[in-house]
Amino acid sequence: MPFLIRRDGDWLYRGSSIRRKELVCLFAGVLTRDETGEYVLETPVERGRIEVEDAPFVAVELDWGVCGGGQQHLSFRLNTDQVVTAGPAHPIRMSAGVGDERVPYLHVRDGQGGWPIEARICRAVYYEMVALAVPQVVEGRDLLGVWSGGGFFPLGAVPQDERISQA
Prior knowledge:
This protein is mainly beta.
C-alpha cells in the first residue's frame, strides 16, 4: 500500500499528506503489526503493508492527576485524539536514539506476534514528564522516573551529584 507514516506523525498517501483527521483516525483504527513486526492496515476485505518511519502515533499532550486510592496517573493524548493512560498495560519505555539521545515511547496496544504498537512521546510532553520525575532505587540503580497507574517507569539515571544511594 502506498502509505507512509512519518516520524512527526504525518500520514501520507502516495506522497501527499492526508489532511482529514477523520481519515487518519479511521486508518489508525485498522493499523496493526504482523507476526514479523511489519505494520499493516487490515480491514475485513483488504490487507497491506505500510511504511512507518518511527512509531505510528505521537503523544502530543499530557494530563496528570491523582485518582482514588492516591495513585498518580499520566494520560497521553495522541495525534489521533486517542487517550492512553500509562500503567502496567501501557508502559513507557526509553529507547536509544542518535548519540546520547534517548527517545520515550508509550505502549498503545498489542500487535500480532508480541509486537507492540507505540506512540513516540514528543519532546515537549517528555519535558513535562521529566518535571514530574522522582528518584527511585531500582535493582540497586539510582533512577529518575515517573509513576502512573501503580507502575514506575524509569526515564534515566540520577545525575552523579544527586545520587540517592541508601546508606
